[in-house]
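User: Second chain of the day. Same drill as before.
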Amino acid sequence: MEDAVAELRYLTQSDNRAEALGIVADDEPVDRSALESRLDASHRTVVRVVNSLEERGYLRQADRELRLTPFGAGIATRFDDALDRTAAAVEFETLLRNGPPVFRDLPIDALSGAELLVASSADPFSILDRVLSLRAESTYIREVAPAVQQESIDQLASRIRRGEEFDVETVISERASERASERIDYREGHETTIESDSVDIYVHPKPISFFVGVMDDTAAFGASKDGQPHALAVSTDPELRTAAESIFERYRDESTHKTTV
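Assistant: Same format as last time:
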């Protein structure tokens, strides 16, 4: 392990080393002059970097062409993967730092390219608004939700009354279910959704502090902070959709079907 850490430290201590290794890995054989141009570094710097990588056993040069050794190729692939995963984790740290343990199984690298929303005091309802917009015209909806919002109930109830065809399954916590049943202003919409053949609501026995949703081809993952929606990632990546579906099925299987208000 110490040797592995030493190699990672060697590469990360110099941006030029890591970048040069990546360039050669992607396009070998690479001419030294081409490497110099792509690194945007001085001739002296490139010579020093190449000599260092060669002495370390990462690459070999012949007739000014650079190729990776098997050692260099093995590390370059895994180093790039680690960089990509780390970059994605850092980009979505607001979501991942506040996410539940179930988010540990998310394919982190698949988050690259996802839309990230973070709630702010200036726009505290941005996450709810985004979820509502995703659900507005979706015909297939699967959700694990931390709470029941009146806007959400009203949206579903309105679609039911218009006779739209869609298929919704939602998992909420026992406490959220009780609160929805207690609210007089929720009752009409709540009754409409429960009585509809288009909507199935499941009650989970434990608190839920996160949001996971599948809306047609789109997946969404939300995290809360201090009891309020804080961050939301939205993506059409198939891996993330599969992950969202898997989380939903796990929570649904642990829940009880709600048939009355």
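The domain at 92-258 is CATH 3.30.870.10 (Endonuclease; Chain A).

User: Great, on to the next one.
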